[in-house]
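TICKET: design request
STATUS: open
ATTACHED STRUCTURE:
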């Protein structure tokens, strides 16, 4: 187990016979048995490894839009001992039901809430789960249809770092959330019920960091191989921070580079016009461009390691062409077979 569960509960939000959303509240927390522990541990790992998460904070009146403070107020009462976990989760369920009632597309679902500790931080995990139908074979070899929670396709979930929230009131990234497949708008109603306002543009910060690294190596006296080593070191550091669920820290990253003989990155990054925060969450998909080039368009998809540029891969911007030396064996086999057929 990578987490220590304090409380967990599930409430159901569903449509009644008149098509109105109603809450069915569980009167007590889930027993922290093996099934609950396994489910929450799996969800914790799945959520932590999700790429492209957004980050925000509890908004107040005057921020972008009119954020609803009800969830944050109830959470404050719970953390202060004025509300029990069951009462707090019940209030949250009703807030979500009210928010869902504003939309025609919602069929409801199962609201899972859990307080747990991982490493040194306390978290509140909030997710709206859907049920998925499956078939099983009974002992007498008859088929039976069952419904189970779809944990592999979680799309509406947020996690509040309670430790950071209570320790740093100026933080704008203590709430993380999964971005929907179509972007931020898909999850709007889920964030609105919590009164969450997006605070840190993670992709923009990671893109700026990547630009700063590229400018840094371009202005240095490093050899081509040393420049690629610098890029690789930055990517490795950021990937480790992502896997640990920790933020990128510019000073810490600069120290890592200094250990490799690449001094002054901190002054370079902070002294320029990059507008980098001192620390921010990692986004692997953005930073992967430090190691790889990739692109798709016009029916062509191309991807190669950055170290091959200028060697196996020759790019000519004037003629708008790319020459590849040493075609991958599986691609070469396909091409040879196609040529023979024609």
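STATUS: resolved
RESOLUTION: sequence designed for all positions
ATTACHED SEQUENCE:
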């Amino acid at each position: 187990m990578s987490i220590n569960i304090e409380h967990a509960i599930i409430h159901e939000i569903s449509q009644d016979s008149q098509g109105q959303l109603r809450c069915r509240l569980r009167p007590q927390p889930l027993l922290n048995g093996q099934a609950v522990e396994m489910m929450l541990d799996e969800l914790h790992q799945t959520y932590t490894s999700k790429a492209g998460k957004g980050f925000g904070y509890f908004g107040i009146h005057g921020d972008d839009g009119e954020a609803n403070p009800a969830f944050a107020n109830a959470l404050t009462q719970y953390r202060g001992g004025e509300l029990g976990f069951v009462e707090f989760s019940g209030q949250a369920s009703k807030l979500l039901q009210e928010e869902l009632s504003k939309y025609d597309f919602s069929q409801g679902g199962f609201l899972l809430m859990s307080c747990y500790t991982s490493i040194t931080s306390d978290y509140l995990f909030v997710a709206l789960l859907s049920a998925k139908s499956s078939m099983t074979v009974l002992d007498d070899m008859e088929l039976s249809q069952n419904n189970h929670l779809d944990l592999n396709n979680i799309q509406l979930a947020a996690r509040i770092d309670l430790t950071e929230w209570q320790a740093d009131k100026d933080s704008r990234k203590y709430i993380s959330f999964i971005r929907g497949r179509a972007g931020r708008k898909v999850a709007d109603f889920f964030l609105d019920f919590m009164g969450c306002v997006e605070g840190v543009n993670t992709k923009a910060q990671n893109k700026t960091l990547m630009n700063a690294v590229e400018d840094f190596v371009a202005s240095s006296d490093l050899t081509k191989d040393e420049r690629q080593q610098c890029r690789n070191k930055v990517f490795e550091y950021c990937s480790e921070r992502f896997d640990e669920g920790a933020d990128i820290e510019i000073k810490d990253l600069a120290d890592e580079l200094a250990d490799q003989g690449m001094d002054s990155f901190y002054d370079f990054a902070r002294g320029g016009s990059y507008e980098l925060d001192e620390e921010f969450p990692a986004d692997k998909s953005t930073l992967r461009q430090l190691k790889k080039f990739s692109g798709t368009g016009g029916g062509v998809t191309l991807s190669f390691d950055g170290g091959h540029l200028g060697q196996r891969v020759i790019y000519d911007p004037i003629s708008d062409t790319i020459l590849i030396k040493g075609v991958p064996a599986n691609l070469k086999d396909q091409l040879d077979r196609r040529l023979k057929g024609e």
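CLOSING REMARK: The longest strand covers residues 4-15. Residues 224-244 form the longest helix (21 residues).
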